[in-house]
Amino acid sequence: MSPLTFGQTKQVQYLSGTDNEHTVAWDFWVTGGRNSGKWSKIQVPGHWEQQGFGAYNYGRDYVTYGKNFRFNDEKGIYRHTFTVPDAWKGQKIQIVFEGSMTDTEVKINGRVAGAIHQGSFYRFKYDITDKVQFGKENKLEVTVSKMSADASVNNAERLADYWIFGGIFRPVYLEAVPQSHIDWTAIDAKADGSFKSNIYLQGIKDASEVLVEIKDRQNKVVASSTVKVSPGDTLKQVSLSVKKPMLWTAETPNLYSAHFTLKKGGQTLYKLRESFGFRTIEVRQGDGIYLNGTKIKMKGVNRHVWWPETGRTINNKIDLEDVKIIKGMNMNAVRCSHYPPDKAFLHYCDSLGLYVLDELAGWQKAYSTTAGRPLVKEMVIRDCNHPSIIIWSNGNEGGHNFDLDDDYARYDLSARPVIHAHHKPGNDFRGIDCNHYENYYSSKDILAGKNIYMVTEFLHAQDDGGGAASLADFWDLHWESKLGAGGFIWALVDEGLMRTDLDNRLDTNGINAPDGILGPHREKEGSYNAIKEIYSPVKINLATLPDNFNGTIPVENRYHFTNLNQCRFEWELISFNAPDAAPGYSVKEKGTAKAPDIKPVQKGELKLNLPKNWKEADAVLLRAFDPNGDELYTWSFKVIKNKDLVAPLLKIPAKETDVTTTETDTNIELTAGDKVVAINKKDGTLAFVTPEKGKKNSFKDGPFLVSGTAVLQSIKHFKDGSAQVVECIYTGDMKKVTWKLHANGWLELSYEYTANGEFKYSGVSFNYPENYVFSAKWLGKGSYRVWKNRMQGVTHNVWESIMNDAVTGHSWGYPEFKGYYADVSWIQMDTAEGKFLVGTPQENLFVRLFEFYGLSGPVPLPELPKGDISFLEAIPPIGGKLSFSLNDNTASLGPLGELNKLNGTKSRTLYFYFGTPEPEGKEKQFVMPSENILTD
Question: Glycoside hydrolase family 2 catalytic domain: which residues (predicted)?
């Protein structure tokens, strides 16, 4: 039994554990599925499926398996004994359930505690004062039905696009209060300092009073008032005012506490404390959503309550981590889809600062009025004093019972706005349109209309699609539009469930649940860092440093309430490590930049005040920190040109040898010492390379165009100084390919081709067996792969990644090895055949590694270039599950989602070294890893 808390406040005794890490064993019997028909033990709180009982259901199984599908209508019977302390005699005793799935009947000592509760995600309680024995053993029996006897409850929360569980999944406890006490309060604290509260009382038999004190974070009383209470009173209202309060916003989450003390003749009967914040929410129709008189826009995400091993039974650490992760992406909002979250999550949103949409369950179908009315009351009574909750959401995608819309204000004194989170056009409600999954251009049409547009689901992040893909276009669209109120990406995490019936394998139910920006254990996908950059309130659009760069960077302030002079800026001048060293960079010099005085939503300049020798660095790193000292983002700007990066490499090894040419029936072979390069006489491609005598490398068959035609017209070879050259002339799109083997073993490849029109990708490929590859090290942007419409979130560095087969949304060894990588200067492959290094003197090279897919569907998308390793001038965009991309029409997502429009001749030089180029006489030495490695 857990410790008791005594005093003039509510006294609590847990009967269950408190979370998924602290549980209590109860007796258990399940009627169907695994381990059914016998008494055993189960840990509470928790889902019975996750403890080896019953059977699994995904909510959309009825769609998958047809109209004759029947859910597992299992019932779980729980038994537990407990003792109520003698000290509680004379007090009101209630048993409280924070959440139970779903119909729940409670008996105490064989007597029914009250009506069966229907609805999974809501706190409910029973007065059991007359049913318990003090100082003696009491028997608790709870019968939980996985499916509800009320069809509307099943429609609203069971037949949904998420995992369906059974069981008592949130804590159960007893609470004792004096017969005369304050039951609950509803607070309305406005930005002007006015404070009102409804005080709901029970058991008042004598004349008494309630003292209300407001305290700041230093526990100083800043306002107080006393309200007289008469016998039989059940509701009193208090009004008072605080001068110049510190206001609550997601940027400034200033909290106060209200202390309610019920007194009788100077004697304290009961105390209650509530945390709150002063803020005013307004919906100005035809304009926007305002907080404290300032228009705000949502940078939000949809969040399921989730942990793979324990489903929707979690703990405070997970709640806190999720809030930090959301804020870590520079988001300011979260939608609690599709049900109220754990109470702790809302406390963290209050204290750390997130705008919350608290949602009544209703997945495309609504609760009946009879079933829904008590659930609205339970949700609002529990949550109404959280300043982070700025909007109530009355159901999802058609799951709206209009009869319940006005019920929220019955219990919420502040009368927050109520929305309908819907997925069909024309369903705007009270001036706010929340339509889901519109494309960029239909979004523009909505924003040109009369309603505020706050999209409650968009850019569905299944697999590696959606999420940050084209987010920059959508965010700029909302930011610049008068009626744009931002939106909520679907969704935060993949609902990967550890299946206790399948050897604890993680199951995302095919394509139904891998919808997260993060994996189920919060593994960060590429969209995480991209969102962090796109949503950074310090907005920097400078992609490369101009030739006349003088240390001044244009900056936009996309905070709503914070001047950039409250932020902190640091710069570093760095040198990239060489291919034969550890990944990372070394810092040459670092300093700070004075934070500019730029007011919210204004533009200005940031002056870095770099030293005169800054051009000697390879790159400049710029870090921005928010007023709390948390990093907003790190930008990198390459100073050195690729030609200057590659030139020193080409001088190693220093030792030279004679280069000769021989012809066979099929190839022209260039030889430098033991190194042999064979060019196919039929098509001019690489036939094979022998780095050392008797060792052949399998890198071959290129360069062939990934888009376009090439027919070899002529091939010849000749000497060029100490090098030997093979020149290939083509008809078609490829024009010319030139091979040159240098005397120190470097192989130079130059090619030209024409590209006119729209292309998914453009460049050349080679073949190489991926199963030979150990790892890759590269100087370029990383550590994550990119898409044409998701180029953000990557920075210049020397990165290293080991070979993996991570499939985004289905296996979670991030970052993925295979994919497109941006702005590569050189890349070194470590393989079973040894290392080979590729560099380019030109800028803006994309490298594509091997076979992968970004988005599963009828055909995995996007389509990949031919070959295994590609060197590209242009790469494809990616769509999202519900963003019109299953037919590969990513152009509907906006300009970034359009195909590449190319016109003219493309040319590039690549340098290859097969083996490890080391200076003559150099011995291999152990290199300490750099301490300055950018991490995701």
Answer: 282-499
| Same CATH fold assignment for domains 181-276 and 641-754+905-918 | no
Burial of 919 (0-12, 13-18, 19+ CB in 10 A): exposed
On whether the pTM is more than 0.90, the answer is yes
pLDDT above 90 covers a percentage of the chain that reads 90
CATH of region 641-754+905-918: 2.70.98.10
pLDDT at residue 823 greater than cutoff 80: yes
For residue 718, list its beta bridge partners: 725
Shortest CA distance to 30 belongs to which of 59, 51, 15, 58?
51
Architecture of domain 538-639: Sandwich (2.60)
For 664-767, where are the E strands, in sequence order?
667-672, 675-680, 686-692, 695-697, 700-705, 710-720, 723-732, 734-741, 747-754, 757-759, 762-767
Per CATH, the number for 181-276 is 2.60.40.10
**Both tokens assigned to 552:** 């001044």
Residues 199-220, mean pLDDT to the nearest whole number: 96
Architecture of domain 297-534: Alpha-Beta Barrel (3.20)
Backbone torsions φ then ψ of 699, nearest 5 degrees: -70, 120
What pLDDT is stored for residue 374 in this prediction?
98
The reported pLDDT for the residue numbered 68 is: 62
Q: Are 593 and 571 in contact (CB under 8 A)?
A: yes
Q: Give the mean pLDDT of 505-524.
A: 95
* 766 three-class SS: strand
Question: What residue spans define the domains of the chain?
Answer: 11-177, 181-276, 297-534, 538-639, 641-754+905-918
- CA separation for the pair 839, 650 (Å, rounded): 9
